[in-house]
Amino acid sequence: MLDAVPTPSLTARQPHVPADRLLAELVPPRHFARESFDTYRPDPDHASQAQALARLREVAGTLSRPAGRSGWFGRRRSAQAPAVYLDGGFGVGKTHLLASLAREVGTDEAAFGTFVEYTNLVGALGFGPTVEQLGAKRLVCIDEFELDDPGDTVLMSRLLRELADRGVALAATSNTLPDSLGEGRFAAEDFLREIQALAGRFEVLRIDGEDHRHRAATTHAATVPAARLREVVAARADATTDDLGELLEHLSRVHPSRYGALLDGVGLVALTGVAPVDRQDVALRLVVLVDRLYDRDVPVVVEREGLTDAGLDLFTPEMLSGGYRKKYYRALSRLGALAAEGAALAADRSAA
């Protein structure tokens, strides 16, 4: 009987996202809704975490001071604007700290988004209007600054330069692979080289530590039997079901800036027909979708049938060792975490 009831599908959605919504959504994601400086717990074995926390509190205090004639919105505004880069590996709390900084300054005065969201914003609004909109903020936070796309990196470097010249404070993070040289310092050198016109303005805050999410264990996506997947989906009005291949084909017709809107009202995503992705453009679209799912804390139920290892088989070995590997490892980790939540829901009979 459950099979006779059609379930909603993401492929049936064609979201329209006005520019004002893109701007309004430049806030810390739902995943960090309850986080603040007070909820960040520095590891006592890594003093750099407490040092970064203390410095960001200072920055927040500077940006939160009332405006004066020659203060934040005065003539000397640009000389006072700080710029910080959080340098460290996976899972040391960089995004937690960045989101906390934005919240401390205030959602009206701070913009928070990923590198991809800002490049999508420029694509939707145009460069000039984006500068005008973001230039009215006190702080612009860029999470997961990407260093693997030359065109987008040049675009973002120019955007940051324009904003810094207007006196907007800047804060950025970037991820490195756990086995990267220096476990993060290499990324800082790359970042500063790519934004060389602004490098002298940025203060690098080194954050050492272990990955608190233990990402190595989450690259294996938990799966559930097909029958149980159908039961869980049928029990929830906010669930969708899609064949992964069909969904990825649909995403090719939806601008990445609309992937968030694609998930409006969705509380659970079920994926069937999960198979390895062998095209780079398709894989990168999947990465953006996983990021939006993770931002919104949407659990994912992955069908087990025909699948041996959803995590390690999703991207090819060439992809995992190529230029976009940071994105792919991040997607594997996040999908693994969301699939674990989905599997827990499937195992809990009370989910219905």
Automatic annotation (TrEMBL):
InterPro entries: ATPase_AFG1-like, P-loop_NTPase. One of its GO terms (molecular function) is ATP binding. Coiled coil: none annotated. One of its GO terms (cellular component) is cytoplasm. The keyword Cell cycle applies. GO terms for biological process: cell division. Keywords: ATP-binding, Cell cycle, Cell division, Nucleotide-binding. Signal peptide: none annotated. The keyword ATP-binding applies. This is Cell division protein ZapE. It comes from Cellulomonas shaoxiangyii. The lineage of its organism: Bacteria, Bacillati, Actinomycetota, Actinomycetes, Micrococcales. The gene is zapE.
